Amino acid sequence: xxxxxxxxxxxxxxxxxxxxxxxxxxxxxxxxxxxxxxxxxxxxxxxxxxxxxxxxxxxxxxxxxxxxxxxxxxxxxxxxxxxxxxxxxxx
Length: 91
Fold this sequence. Notes:
Blueprint: E1 6-8, H1 17-24, E2 32-33, H2 48-61, E3 67-74, E4 80-87
Parallel strand pairs: 1-2, 1-3
Antiparallel strand pairs: 3-4
């Protein structure tokens, strides 16, 4: 995922943004991790992951990011994960 400018991670446990950046191979100094506050600030049941992907799409469509990552999880032990990388070009 190198090159992602924003990361919208879905998780019920707060993580250190530097840890997330290192795990994903991103530069923590230039990548904005959970600029919306993450799922901890609003966790609609069964839709928090979709909301993170929507926020990533909004960041790309608005031009605030050229590349963004959205993360969703599911399952009682969070065993299903989806990582969605979005990028756009100026039209």
